[in-house]
Amino acid sequence: MHAVSHERTRKDKLIIVSQNVRNLTSIKLAKLVQLALEGKAYAFLLQETWIITPTGCEVQELCDGKVLLILAGLKRKVCNRGSQGVGILLSPQAVKDWKDASSKISSHSPRHISLDTRIQGTKTRLATAWAPTSGAKTWERQDFYHESLDSCLGCDRNLNIIGIDSNASVGRASASPARFSEGKHRKFFRPVGHRGFGRANKAGTEFREWLTTRLMRATSTFFKQRKGHKGTWMHPHTRSMHQIDHIRTNALTFSYVTHCGIAPNFLHVESDHRAVQVVL
């Protein structure tokens, strides 16, 4: 970002919110649009919208084009309840930035959308993604990581922000950072911080491997949270909390993050998942 970005006041902070909305109803959408118009968040990264998009991806202009809703989903209904679907809701400032940058949707599928924009003059890849559940077969999760998630990645020299329902528990950092080889060089990288919650499951271990090789971080696991504000989803049977909703950032973006964690209640819509926010 430009040098002036380091001198931003508290009033100038930029907030991006990510949430699995479990069906983007008209009531939920109306609340998010109002929050966007009021400047409460720069953008909302949404998962499980359950909205059918016959063309695969569509852009809806709301409030005379002041707010944009970009949707990707299944082309036809596969069950009565609804399935998959993701979306990005852009505030008026985000709409202006996106149009000035490119108005380009980089890639999309029923499980992800990524777009290229500029935040305060810096090239940015903004994305949302919804992973297969932890009960899915390993090859299904690997396909998601290497197709959908890889499509969300931008250049290392640019900002990269991915809101995701990972459906995987990544736990907390181990005593030593992960090692991996890149050509003849061995690198060390910590994709998960000491502030993580709970233990890692098999899906979480696979996801940590993807984060490590892509040099991405589960941002909220590096920041202190209020007591009882780490878990983002409660298992319906065991009633135990799990931290499966994250905002992933690359090294450049991480250097500008001032906080990441559970969003204030007024930024949530009704869902069994809590919203997560990153503050830049």
Give the strand tally: 19
- Radius of gyration from CA coordinates: 18 Å
Instruction: State the major sheet.
Output: 7 strands, mixed
Rounded average pLDDT: 90
- Specify the structural class: alpha+beta
SSE order, as H and E?
EHEEEEHEEEHEEEEEHEEEEHEE
Helix content: 10-25%
Task: Give the percentage of residues in beta strands.
Answer: 25-35%
Spatial separation of the terminal alpha carbons: 11 Å
Strand order of the largest sheet: 3-4-5-2-1-19-18
Number of helices: 5
Describe the structure.
- By secondary structure, this protein is an alpha+beta fold.
- It is built from five helices and 19 strands.
- α1 links the parallel β1 (15-20) and β2.
- The chain is globular.
- The protein starts with 14 loop residues before the first strand and ends with a strand.
